[in-house]
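Risk register update: the risk of archive-format incompatibility is retired. Evidence:
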Amino acid sequence: MSASLIILLLVLAVIASTVTLIVRGISAGKGAVAETIRIRDNRRAAGPVAGLVIRPLAVGDRRAWERLWDSYCEFYGETLPASATETTWSRMMDSDSPVKGWLPATPKAL
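Archived output:
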């Protein structure tokens, strides 16, 4: 077998492998999108969460908000200085600020 034929076969093998990986990636992506849509639709079909109320933050909600804030930062892998947390809270408590906060609560907590 000539060297040029071997090179051609290798190039074709690489192209075939690349196409296979692309097709698998597209298929996996479509599967993930379909699963996300299925989960979302099932959640919507279940209706609202019984007793859940979303209400504006109040001064007395600081501890509950901080638990949510800390979880949010942890989820995104962020470590923020305490001053960032304080500034965010202060802005949400300032009626002149465009930054607003909301808190999920049960009717008993209202």
